[in-house]
Specification:
Elements lengths: L1 H10 L4 H19 L14 E2 L17 E2 L7 H9 L7 H5 L3 H5 L3 H9 L4 H22 L9 H11 L2 H8 L4 H16 L3 H11 L22 H24 L16 H14 L2 H4 L7 H21 L6 H15 L2 H4 L6 H4 L1 H10 L7 H7 L6 H4 L9 E3 L2 H4 L8 E4 L7 E3 L2 E5 L4 E7 L5 E11 L3 E7 L4 E7 L4 E10 L2 E9 L16 E12 L4
Parallel strand pairs: 1-2, 3-13
Antiparallel strand pairs: 4-7, 5-6, 6-13, 7-12, 8-11, 8-13, 9-10, 9-12
Length: about 550
């Protein structure tokens, strides 16, 4: 069996060692993505629903159990995921739930695909939308073998450079449409190179309703060695027809789709130069580096600027107009020049994901050989950002589970767990999470239902030294007391009643906090680990 596999690889001129490296990267990706799964909430963490927008969610969302970022405005995917519940756009709730419905609804492709793959069921649609990026990443990893077969380490580096570029990782981390859009453009370019221009036309035309700038990929179809003719006309019509027809539909259903995004475009190079002007001074401030390299946003912005500048200069200085991928790269290089402040601002900014096709074109076109490795490294500098972009989610310090009807009330309110001021922030390692306290500390559980709910509380306690701890439900009875020490004490309380509204649980200790000899400057009392709350209906009175 092994000999047969080796023989097959040799016939294709694939290196067995390089093939193993490709497989290892895919396994690593699956393992990294799996870290974003939250029990009871699936992969909804990736969509980044903001707690400040909870009241305006559409009705289909109010019965679902999904992750919400407390005291946050959330991010773009929360709007597209709600559109995916009603891709026909006839639900009147969408107007108040979406920040700019005509603008967001133009990008209907992946919302509609989530609706179809989710069979119209809101809970399924939500999870499909969250994992679409990962599915597209896996398909793209296969499509890229067209340009980067596993024959040597040079092609392996380019393959990894595309798949783990910062733009791709951010798209995955926030369930955005940029990564899946790159897949459509790559498929179109591959079809052009394989001599199937009409299939490429259909793919690139469909990509326009995934994201408007995807139509720039149609540059692959423009062959400068041939005169324009009827074929160009028909291909052009097929490219713009899906987007044009959809814009007409939008005009009839939600109003004129004239919003192109605030400050998305500007004068050539103006926003790009302002980005350099904002980043360079930040690099010389001590505060930039005080919390470690992983939090040095200015450094990540610098890597993004270096990579995009290298890609731009390479495309401009080595013109290859007969290459379909060069024509795609040039079209996105022009886009880079006119991008506005909204795309560049922030640390590191959205430009790296908006310009993902430029990243692909660069890696395809840079000549092979060690002499070009310096250029290749500069153009793939954002690889160093990938670990920061793919960090697993920090849990809120509690895992909630139970029937969705108990976790979410009929009016849309959700069960919330809030830690008092005496707790330090959530810390985690792999699947474990914990809070240290600085003394007596409380946990507040908000029950949005109008009736009491039963709960089972499971957690682990440990301390900096021997102490006695007591847990009370404020306004109710003592729930637990006992000694704790360095060793962990597991506690399970199976009959806790959560009254409607606020329920406050107070941990009190008989010993003051201490400072550890390890150098941690914080005064520490006791540690609450892996708090899990499971809800169930209260028995009838």
């Amino acid at each position: 069996m092994i000999r047969a596999v080796v023989s097959y690889l040799q016939k294709r001129r694939w290196s067995p060692a390089v093939v193993l490296a490709y497989v290892a990267v895919v396994i690593l990706f699956v393992a990294l993505f799996a870290q974003f799964y939250l029990p009871g909430q699936g992969f909804s963490y990736l969509i980044a629903f903001g707690g400040k927008n909870e009241a305006s969610r559409i009705a289909a969302m109010k019965g679902l159990n999904y992750y919400v970022q407390t005291d946050s405005d959330g991010y773009d995917a929360q709007y597209y995921a709600q559109i995916a519940m009603h891709p026909s756009l006839h639900d009147p709730d969408l107007r108040s739930a979406i920040d700019s419905l005509p603008y967001r609804a133009r990008r209907i492709f992946f919302a509609a695909s989530a609706y179809g793959l989710g069979l119209g069921r809101p809970a399924w649609i939500l999870q499909v939308y969250a994992v679409q990026n990962a599915l597209c990443w896996l398909v793209l990893a296969v499509v890229l073998l067209h340009w980067f077969p596993p024959t040597d380490w040079d092609r392996f580096a380019r393959w990894v450079g595309v798949l783990f570029s910062f733009g791709m990782c951010v798209s995955l981390r926030n369930a955005l449409i940029d990564g899946p859009s790159l897949l459509l453009i790559a498929l179109g370019a591959m079809c052009v190179e394989q001599g199937r221009p009409w299939l490429a036309t259909c793919i690139l035309g469909a990509s326009g309703i995934a994201k408007e700038t995807n139509v720039l990929g149609a540059a692959a179809l423009l062959r400068p060695e041939k005169r324009p003719g009827r074929r160009w006309l028909w291909q052009g019509l097929l490219i713009v027809a899906p987007l044009g027809l959809w814009l007409v539909y939008l005009h009839w259903t939600v109003g004129p789709a004239t919003d192109f995004g605030v400050r998305n475009f500007g004068w050539p190079f103006a926003a790009y130069l302002r980005k350099w002007g904002a980043v360079l001074p930040e690099l010389f401030r001590a505060e930039t580096w005080s919390s470690g390299l992983a939090n040095a946003g200015a450094f990540w912005s610098l890597l993004m600027l270096v990579a995009l500048t290298a890609q731009l200069l390479f495309l401009l200085l080595r013109p290859r107009p007969r290459e379909p991928m060069w024509r795609i790269g040039l079209s996105f290089a022009v886009l880079m020049i006119v991008l506005g402040d909204a795309v560049w601002e922030g640390y590191p900014g959205a430009a790296s994901r908006v310009l993902l096709p430029l990243q692909l074109a660069f890696n395809v076109l840079v000549p092979g050989g060690w002499r070009w490795w310096g250029v290749l490294l500069l153009g793939n500098a954002t690889l160093f950002n990938a670990p920061a972009a793919l960090e697993p989610p920090l849990r809120d310090g509690c895992e909630l589970s139970g029937p969705s009807g108990l976790l979410t009330a009929a009016d849309g309110g959700r069960v919330r767990v809030e830690f008092g001021a005496a707790w330090y922030g959530t810390e985690h390692l792999n699947s474990r999470y914990w809070h240290w306290s600085r003394g007596d500390a409380d946990v507040r559980v908000v029950n949005p239902q109008r009736v009491p709910v039963m709960a089972t509380l499971k957690f682990t306690l440990s301390s900096t030294g021997a102490r006695n701890l007591r847990l009370m439900q404020v306004g109710g009875a003592e729930l637990w007391r006992g000694p704790i020490a360095d060793a962990s004490t597991v506690v399970e309380l199976s009959a806790v009643t959560l009254q409607p509204g606020d329920n406050r649980f107070l941990f009190t200790s008989d010993q003051p906090p201490v400072r550890l000899a390890s150098g941690d400057p914080r005064p520490l009392a006791f540690c609450l680990k892996n708090l899990a709350i499971e809800l169930r209906p209260a028995p009838p009175p």
